[in-house]
Every structure is written in structure tokens, then in C-alpha cells.
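Appendix C: a fully annotated inverse folding record. The material below is reproduced so that readers can follow the format used throughout the book. The structure is listed first as C-alpha cells, followed by the designed sequence.
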């Protein structure tokens, strides 16, 4: 059943509107002031399908009531408003429309006009809200698909390096936790998680024999490894829908003292997300199996992070990583 609230300081008008709409199976709630309406929908949380609002009322006129409704009610729960008025000039009508009114109905009120306009506005509002919900659903579907593609790509990167199973996911999770503790919003945390997942995407362009070489790399082989941030940057910059995705890929090997690669950036000139991922990446490297060593002890890992503050790592994010290490009493944060 369609539900309409009519607000008018004259009892005759309220009764007439209620009778006209009631005959067409509308449920009608009659109120006599703007203050009553604000209490009814803002304080008590009622959400009718439409509000019929008189303009000329004592204490608070219809324009002021509509202003308050727009401020107090979330846009996702907005209720369409039709003004009821005896006489309205062009300036007043434009003011009402600018405030967000859907229409005007002039007094005396004719039943057919009232029923047609009320029914039409309610139907349009329902269609509009249904479209919004459909758009939100489709957008969420696309976002989920994008995340699945990113996860699949990260798994493909990890599969290329037999010594770093699950590395990308762990770096992403550590980065997300550091960002959360630093005060990032949920959306920013999600963003840095995606950056962390793909920080090593450039290894796609590095020969498997170099990545999986069990012994010490030659200078030429190390030079090939050092190109992977540039390759990753080129790959991810093509994803126009996620412009920040390339940050972690390009700069996760920069060092706070400027001695890193590929660009030799220093301090806060290194983008913040990359400084976070750098700490997470180094931590996981030390807490993962390698061809030449096993997982390092937690004490050694902690010591290395502490030693790298201000040289390899941003001290702020290194301290957050140290806090996470200290809380991990049973040393669970490492490769299985």
C-alpha cells in the first residue's frame, strides 16, 4: 500500500486530502506542522512514500521544513515532496524546485489532479531507487570480478617463484594491517591490499632461471631482477580504473635513505603506500623459506627491522611493524 504524509495547518485541507487519497487505497498520515513532520520522519524514523507539504504555515514554513529534511535524512532514504499552496509566483516555484521539491499542487485541490500527481511521483521515485540499487549491484559485481582477477594474477606471480608461495597475499595482508593501524580508511586499506597483491607483478618479465636460481646471483642476473619494478609499473599503469595500483609495484624496493631502486627516491618523496609495502615485503622475505636458508627467528627479524629504521624503512611504519611483531607472541606471522 502506498503511504502519504500530508502536512497542513488547516484541518479542512488535511481531511480533504485524506479522503481523496483514501478512496484510492492510499494510507494517509495527517500532521499539522513542520515540527511534527520533522519529529515523525527524522526522530522516529518513519519513511512514507511521499510528503504533501503546505508552504504557508506558522512557525516554520514549507521551504524551511524541506531544507531540514534534506540535511537530516540520508540521500539514500530521501522522500519525495510535493508542495501544497494557494498562490505561488514563479520565484517561489523556482525556490521550491531548487530545494528539491518534485512538484506543486495548488489549492483548492481537485481529486483527479491530486491522485494523478501523487501516483506519478511515487512511481517515478520507486523506479529511480530501483535503478540505483541495480547500478550499485552491478558496480559491486564488477569490483568483485576485478578483485578475483587481481588475486588470480597474484597467484600466477607467486607460482613463477617456487620459493615464495603465498608471498603476495601475505605482503598485502601485512600492508593492510599497517595501514589500518596508521589510520587509513577501510577503502584506503582495500586499496593498499590490492597494491600489495600486485607489488611483484613485474617478475612476469624476469626469466624463471634467474628468479629460481638457488645460489648467489651474478651482477647481470641481479640487474635483471632490478628491472621488475619498472616492468610492473608499465603493466599496472594501463589499468586506468585503478590509477594507484602501480605505486607498490614501482617503488617497493626504494629505501628511505635514497639508496634503493629503480628511481633512488628518498624519504617522504617515496609515496606513502610504497613505504608501507616496503616494510611488509622485507618482513615477509625474512619470514619465508629460501633456497639458501630457512625462516629466520623472530628475534633476528625484529632486530633487522629495528636496524633498518631511517635507512631502509620509514621509521613510522617500521615501528608499527615492530608493534605487530611484539604482539605476535607465538610467532604465527610467517610462511607455513
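Designed amino acids, in order:
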Amino acid at each position: 500500500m502506498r503511504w502519504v504524509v500530508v502536512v497542513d495547518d488547516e484541518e479542512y485541507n488535511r481531511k480533504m486530502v485524506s479522503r481523496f487519497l483514501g478512496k484510492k487505497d492510499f494510507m494517509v498520515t495527517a500532521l499539522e506542522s513542520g515540527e511534527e513532520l520533522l519529529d515523525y520522519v527524522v526522530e522516529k524514523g518513519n519513511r512514507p512514500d511521499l510528503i504533501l507539504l503546505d508552504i504557508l504555515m506558522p512557525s516554520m514554513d514549507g521551504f524551511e521544513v524541506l531544507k531540514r529534511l534534506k540535511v537530516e535524512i540520508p540521500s539514500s532514504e530521501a522522500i519525495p515532496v510535493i508542495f501544497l499552496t494557494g498562490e505561488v509566483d514563479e520565484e517561489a516555484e523556482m525556490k521550491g524546485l531548487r530545494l528539491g521539491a518534485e512538484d506543486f499542487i495548488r489549492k483548492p485541490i481537485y481529486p483527479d489532479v491530486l491522485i494523478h500527481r501523487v501516483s506519478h511521483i511515487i512511481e517515478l521515485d520507486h523506479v529511480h531507487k530501483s535503478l540505483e540499487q541495480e547500478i550499485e549491484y552491478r558496480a559491486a559485481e564488477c569490483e568483485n570480478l576485478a578483485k578475483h582477477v587481481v588475486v588470480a594474477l597474484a597467484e600466477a606471480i607467486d607460482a613463477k617463484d617456487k620459493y615464495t608461495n603465498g608471498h603476495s597475499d601475505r605482503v598485502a595482508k601485512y600492508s593492510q594491517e599497517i595501514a589500518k593501524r596508521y589510520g587509513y580508511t577501510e577503502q584506503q586499506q582495500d586499496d593498499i591490499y590490492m597494491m600489495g597483491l600486485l607489488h611483484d607483478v613485474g617478475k612476469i618479465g624476469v626469466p624463471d632461471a634467474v628468479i629460481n636460481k638457488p645460489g648467489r646471483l651474478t651482477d647481470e642476473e641481479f640487474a635483471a631482477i632490478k628491472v621488475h619494478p619498472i616492468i610492473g609499473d608499465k603493466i599496472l599503469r594501463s589499468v586506468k580504473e585503478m590509477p594507484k595500483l602501480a605505486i607498490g609495484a614501482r617503488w617497493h624496493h626504494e629505501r628511505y635513505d635514497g639508496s634503493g631502486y629503480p628511481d633512488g627516491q628518498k624519504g617522504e618523496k617515496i609515496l606513502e603506500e610504497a613505504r608501507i609495502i616496503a616494510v611488509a615485503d622485507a618482513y615477509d622475505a625474512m619470514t619465508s623459506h629460501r633456497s639458501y636458508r630457512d625462516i629466520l627467528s623472530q628475534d633476528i627479524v625484529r632486530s633487522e627491522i629495528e636496524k633498518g629504521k631511517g635507512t631502509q624503512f620509514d621509521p613510522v611504519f617500521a615501528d608499527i611493524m615492530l608493534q605487530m611483531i611484539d604482539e605476535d607472541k607465538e610467532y604465527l606471522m610467517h610462511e607455513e
